[in-house]
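Job type: complex structure
Entries:
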Amino acid sequence: MAEEVLLLGAWASPFTSRVELALKLKGVQYKYSDEDLNNKSPSLLQYNPIYKKVPVLVHNGKPIVESQVILEYIDETWQGYPLLPKDLYERAIARFWVKFIDDKCWPALQKVFIGEEKGREKAVEEAYEVLKFLEKELKEKRFFGGESIGMVDIAANIIGYWLGACEEATGVELLTREKFPKLSNWIDEFVSNSVIKENLPPRDKLVPFLRHRFGL
Amino acid sequence: MAEEVVLLDFWASVFGMRVRIALAEKGIKYESKEEDLRNKSDLLLKMNPVHKKVPVLIHNGKPVCESLIIVQYIDEVWNDSSPLLPSDPYQRAHARFWADFVDQKVYDASRRVWRTKGEEQEAAKKDFFESLKTLVRELGDKPYFGGETFGFVDIALITFYSWFYVYETYGKFSIEAECPEIIAWAKRCMQKESVANTLPDQKKVYDLLW
């Protein structure tokens, strides 16, 4: 049966970007459909009735939702570029850091950039605590995945690209090279990677979008 | 090398129970170390420096944290019997989605049911039952979320059953009255040795909070 892969996404969403990145790394051909999140399509509501969110991967008519679930599905379905390590223990560690990024980093960053100004100092301190763990986890590696990009690097796209865009949009400085030398180097590697940089939303479109979203 | 499996746990933790059920399903021998959560051991702080939480599975000296990640790890390492996740990638994605739904929706609402009062509690009760009813629709006619066999999603959810008396008493409702299918499913799971031997008595959990 001819392979049919459809991705419902939102161009400014880091979660959508994760899925695109994974598909591109695997060399999977897919169709992309951009959603207006203020006016969700009947397809989206049909494919993701529980959360009504993007991204949704539809593979031969069957939907998979939640970016982390989608990434694991992509890794298991298409061979070639491995997103997760082969070693079972390293795999559990990778899953741990992906969950850490989603459960701790994402909310911490939101508090810094979307939260009120009076709470900002505290939000920044809390974000530092979270980022310190990732700084430590990088150790001397080029990527979280080692020599090449893996699932943790893909999940960390919020730090790799969106964080910088948020800093530009709000004027709030969070991740400095001084405080986070390893993460800063990792960010440089991330955005200069050939597959990644082709698939990020353009900065000059994303920054005004975020500014608008933050009500600035 | 002799296999060494240690579990850092707390008897009333719904997350720790998930790991114990998985270990029991696989027939894995392990050493259990009970933590006093008000006075965490040096070992726990060393093995889970990021979250400082239970459960932690220590396999040949190496720690794995986060209950669903541990259960997947157990399933992948001890893969010769009693599979906890399906082998088909789409079914696996399905299982992961619903286990995550339990964490995102059931856990949060259940916590608010017994920890809040007034309007906040009413909202929590509504969310709690909505999440259970969504799960009931997913269960449908199947004996287990895993289909014919007990699996990943069943493990993720069944541990909350040990806290049902807490939710019902604090929330002043009957889960059986609102959602009989969940009780029927839970009782079916409780017939499994791995579940019955793991889940503490509901009243004992209630007494812990009192």
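Summary: The radius of gyration of chain A is 17 Å. The longest strand of chain A covers residues 5-9.
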